[in-house]
Amino acid sequence: MAEKLKIKLSIADRVYPLTIDPLQEEGLRKAAKNIEQLAKKFEQNYAVRDKQDVLAMCALQFASKIEQKGIDHSEGVKEAAERLKALNVLVSSKLGMK
Fold first, then answer.
1. Domain residue ranges of the chain, discontinuous segments joined by +
2. Which of 32, 66, 71, 74 supports an S-S bond with 9, CB 3.0-4.6 Å?
3. Is Cell division one of the keywords (predicted)?
4. Which residues have C-beta within 8 Å of that of residue 20, sequence separation ≥ 6?
5. pTM of the prediction?
């Protein structure tokens, strides 16, 4: 089992000390950077009362992207299944003619 790594991430002017698996470091740092960038964007473009509002909007933005990807994926799977069924019917009809 790998040793745990202690890191500090800064999000919305707060430092969060974490003890993580070394394989998680890159993903966590990228996630923190994305949150910081989005928070700055919200602060610049909208009237924001406090950091909690900014972080709530960031959470909503990221969560909605995840949900939309799930919806898009399920629709893509459904469409692929329908195409495979149609292809199966076509192949079956051609094989049945011989």
1. 5-97
2. 32
3. yes
4. 4, 5, 6, 7, 28
5. 0.68
